[in-house]
Structures are given as structure tokens and as C-alpha cells.
Amino acid sequence: MPENLNINKILCGDCAKILTELPENSVDLVFADPPYNLQLSQELWRPNRTHVNAVRDTWDKFKSFQEYDQFTRDWLSGCKRVLKETGALWVIGTYHNIYRVGAILQDLGFWILNDIVFIKTNPMPNFHGVRFTNAHETLIWAQKHKGSKYTFNYQAMKSLNEDLQMRSDWVLPIVTGSERIKANGMKAHSTQKPEALLYRILLSTSNPGDLVLDPFFGSGTTGAVAKKLGRRFIGIELDEGYIKIARERIEGVESAPAAALKVANLRLQKRVPFGRLLEAGLLKPGQDLYFIQNGIEATLLADGNIQCGKLTGSIHGVARSLSNGAPANGWDCWLFEDGNGDRQPLDKLRQQLRAPTETGDTI
Q1: pTM across the whole model
Q2: For helices 221-228 and 240-251, what crossing angle results, to 10°?
Q3: How far apart are CA 140 and CA 105, in angstroms?
Q4: In Å, how far from its chain's centre is CA 343?
Q5: How many CB atoms lie under 10 A from the CB of residue 271?
Q6: 3-state secondary structure of 17
Q7: Which of 178, 209, 276, 352 is spaced 20 to 30 Å from 7 by Cα?
Q8: Which of 139, 143, 141 is nearest to 172 (CA)?
Q9: DSSP 97-130
């Protein structure tokens, strides 16, 4: 089955079988929202005797844990086969299944990078008051092999979070209101995930043009967000009704302009030795630098080291000593005085060296 025939398509059928037909090492990222095996044995009712429309679909029913484990092993094995060596996988679940899925992931050789707690701002209450309100779901982010490269757009997540490092607890609302896809006046899919959740996942762990696979496509949230963010997708779905809903939904999505999809990746930026600032004339030997925490002065030496009292060393080493051994990035810790007498971080000069000139070269 040629890969290009499947791009931005929804394939109908059993995911474990279809995964054996897709090209090996062709997918950049997998997002999987498999059946949770909720094991509901009775109807659920609110205290006012109104019926709770819970997950009672046939696709969520398994005869035993052993049957569910084999189902999980089959689709996870298929995902590992189609993932690139640099690929990664996300899977979401609840206490009913996520621990079994996690163990099987590890058995198959995946390496867990993080678990994320999706904390629901508006969870369904525990109507009978016999347990804690189940207000979260768990996501596992794992790479195909331990130690291989993988995509993580750290700076994009930091920017999305008001310039603070993104944490592993994601507080988001569940799907309600106009975001809920409906059919015949009822919710079209019982476990539709919020687009905000997929937005974080795709923005953080894939790049524009990457191929994202969702083996349990449902109402098409992964495809909708992938199209919005300039990613390609393959969906696999057993239910033809869901496929129709997902196709119509995705057709109505507008892709963002390519220029708006560029995200900063500091790890990929060109390395600039500190001494290059001296060679380029942006700094001069004998010039004073100022420690950002308390304004302590250091003198710049001709070889690129700095002298601060009895301390002599690199901008990073001296900053670390002044911070009592704590990790310190000298580019951010030291300030220089610009032509107006204003103090600026050294990183501003580094970015000048990284910026292309009119000829397309860097300084």
C-alpha cells in the first residue's frame, strides 16, 4: 500500500490489521485514544433520576483483562513498526487501563519520556458519593527507542505558557458546547477529546509537515488539529459513521499560514562561541560586564574569559560560582552596557551573530 495514497485519509477497518499494511518507519508521531475497557455493568443515574449517557459502546467491551491486553499488544506493536526511529507515541487513558497499557509499552521496548495528567476543569461528578470525583486522565509520552532523537519543541511550550516552563499537569476543560460534535441532536462520539489537548501534543512533539497517525480516529480531533497546524495525518477507524462525521469536520478546518507555524527550537540554533563576540568587535578586552543578580562587575579578558575578583573563567563558570554552584547560563547571567548606557544580556549580541545578513550569511 503506497504511503502517499494514505496521507490525510481515514482508513476504515481494524487498526491492528491496517497497521501491518502501512509502510515501516514512515510515521513521525502517534496519538492513540484506545478503548478504556471501563467495565460498566449497570446503567448510571443522577440523584434526580435522570440517565447518564456514559460510555457503553460495544467497542469498549472486552471479555477479560487478558483479551484487552492482547488487543493492546497488537495495536502497540503495529504502531512501533510504522514509527520512524526518531518517532514517538502518545496514549491516553484512565485508571481502568493506563497501567496495563504502560506495562505493555515497556515490554515492547518503548521508552517513557513523561506522563501527563489532563486535569478536567469540569469533570462529571461521582453521583453516588462513594468515590472521589474522577477529575483527570493520564497520558503517556514515549519514544520508540531509548536514547534516540525525538522532537520536543520546548520553547514553543514555554511561549504557550506565558514564558514559563510547561508542567506535566495540564488543566483543560472537557468537550462541551459548540465544540461537541453532534449527530441527530446527540453527541456523536462518547469520548471526544478537546482540541486544546491535541494542540499541545502536536505543537510540542511534531513539526510542520510531519506525519501523525491516530489508530482510533473517532470523530477526527487529531485530523482537525493536524490540518490546522500544517501536519499531515493518517486516521484509522472501524466505524463508518464516525468516519463520515470526521471527514465533514476536517473539511471545514482552515490550515494556518505556513509562516505562522514556525516555532523556535534553541537546540537547533547555530552554536556561537563567546570569543566570537570579541573577534567581531561587539565586545572589547577590558570591558566591564555586570552579574544580573546583584550587579557585581567582571572584566572581559582578551582570551574570552572574564575576571571577577579572585575568580577567572568562562562566563558560565564564573556565573556558576557566583550562584553557589547552581546551573547558570552565562549568556543570560551577564549584562553589557550598550551605546546608550543601558544594560543588556549578552545573549542579545549572540543573536546578532546568528542573524543572517543581506547576503544570507551570518556575521
Answers
A1: 0.72
A2: 20
A3: 10
A4: 36
A5: 7
A6: helix
A7: 178
A8: 139
A9: THHHHHHHHHHTT-EEEEEEEEEESSPPP-TTSS
Q: Which three cell numbers stand for residue 329?
A: 547560563
283 Cβ contact partners less than 8 Å away, ≥ 6 residues apart: 277, 300, 336, 349
Whether 243 and 217 have beta carbons less than 8 Å apart is answered as yes
In this structure, what C-alpha cell is assigned to residue 300? Answer: 572581559
- In this structure, the number of other CB atoms found within 10 A of the CB of residue 138 comes to 18
Long-range contacts of 57-64 (CB under 8 A, 24+ apart): 57/190, 59/35, 59/238, 59/239, 60/35, 60/36, 61/37, 62/35, 62/37
Which residue in the block uniquely carries the three cell numbers 550587579?
295
Q: What is the pLDDT along the chain (363 residues), one digit of tens a residue?
A: 445 668 999 999 999 999 999 999 999 999 999 998 865 555 554 455 554 455 556 755 778 889 999 999 999 999 999 999 999 999 999 999 999 999 999 999 999 999 999 999 888 777 677 889 889 999 999 999 999 999 999 989 988 998 889 999 999 988 777 788 777 766 776 778 999 999 999 999 999 999 999 999 999 999 999 999 999 999 999 999 999 999 999 999 999 999 899 876 656 567 889 999 999 999 999 999 999 988 999 999 999 999 999 999 999 999 999 998 888 899 999 999 998 999 999 999 998 888 754 334 444
Burial class (CB in 10 A: 0-12, 13-18, 19+), 158: middle
For residue 73, how many other CB atoms are within 10 A of its CB? Answer: 16
Position 114: which residue type? N
**Any bridge partners for residue 142, and if so which?**
89, 112
Over residues 2-13, the pLDDT tens digits come to 456 689 999 999
Residue 116 · residue 139 · CB < 8 Å: yes
3-class state of residue 220 by DSSP: coil
What span, in angstroms and rounded, lies between the C-alpha atoms of 219 and 120? 20
E-strand ranges in 189-331 read 211-214, 232-237, 288-291, 297-300, 306-308, 311-313
Backbone dihedral angles phi then psi of residue 289, each to the nearest 5 degrees: -115, 160
Cell digits for 153? Answer: 519543541
Cell numbers given for 356 = 543572517
β-bridge partners, 119: 136, 171
